[in-house]
Amino acid sequence: MGVEIAPGSRVKLHLKLSLEDGTEALSTLGEPPLECVLGDGTLREGMELALYGLTEGEEQTITLTPEQGWGPRDPALIRELSRSDFPAELSPEVGQIIAFDNGEGESLPGTILEVDETRVKVDFNHPLAGREVIFWVRVLEVE
């Protein structure tokens, strides 16, 4: 039996995150595998907990609750901005994800919820916040 994944383990793995309706949110399949050390912040805590005890070659699929994943949706992160805050050449559309400057030189993604002549409602919650996420993983290596 191989080395079991534990806190501090260096792992190489493939993962896939999907919504309950099957919509794929993220996948490393077809790309180089993800390499990280458990506890380094690369994976959400709930994802790390799902890996503990697995060994090289094993696969697992679990459903993460919002609390185990990206947390609940925060209504305070939904903001109404003035249409004039957007460049004239940019025409925001519902469902569009736009990068906003957070005032500290960092980019913050926001999802456009509503648009009218004078206001644009933007959701700055992580797109997976408040949602159950199906987490599939295949462990390739464990150190």
Structure description:
The model has no long low-confidence stretch (mean pLDDT 93). A hairpin with a 3-residue loop joins β7 and β8. Strands 1, 2, 3, 4 and 9 form a five-stranded antiparallel β-sheet that branches. A four-stranded antiparallel β-sheet has the order 5-8-7-6, with no helix packed on it. With 143 residues, the chain is mainly beta. Helices cover 5% and strands 41% of the residues. It is built from one helix and nine strands. The longest helix has 7 residues, at 45-51. The protein starts with 9 loop residues before the first strand and ends with a strand.
Sequence-ordered SSE layout with sheet pairings:
Blueprint: E1 10-19, E2 24-27, E3 34-37, H1 45-51, E4 59-64, E5 78-82, E6 97-101, E7 107-115, E8 119-123, E9 133-142
Antiparallel strand pairs: 1-2, 1-3, 1-9, 4-9, 5-8, 6-7, 7-8
